[in-house]
Amino acid sequence: MTGKSFTIDLGQIMDEAFRAFEQFGESFGHEARDAAEHAAEHVRRATEACGGRGPFCDCYPGYLYPPANVYLTPEKQMVLELALAGFNEKDVSVQFRGDYLVFSAKAPEAAAPDERTQYFKRRLRMRDVDEQRYFVPADRFDQAASQATFKNGLLRIVVPPCGTPAAAEGIRIDIRTEGAT
User: Fold this and answer.
1) Would you state the CATH architecture of domain 62-177?
2) pTM metric for this prediction
């Protein structure tokens, strides 16, 4: 390195850095505009899905009603929890049809609201649930040993694992109230 020298043009380096930042800002601006357009499209679709009442309308899309958790425990039990506040256990039906657990519920009769009533928030709209199906393969789960409990408006169905498939015809699950004899 003796005898050789080089110079660094700090101004040129700074100019290149600022150009890079400008390009980044322009690119980020385009990305932000694209994201905003995508969000606006999502809001438009949600508005259409709620019958034109806006994306924050007080309605439940069919796939969210009733709210449910479906999970597998460390013991390989399939657990389904369905929030059924206001429903009566005698109006709830749970049964297996082949590899599917089929859940139905009849909503209680509600009194018609006074037309002069002005709601600020209306989320409590119970409706019938017609045959929601959950995949629970008979070759992996003991459908006949399933248990369902209904407590405080929460229906909890536990399906244990098995090694042999169940009968071809449907198996009905009786629902019992926890704590009742």
Assistant:
1) Sandwich (2.60)
2) 0.54
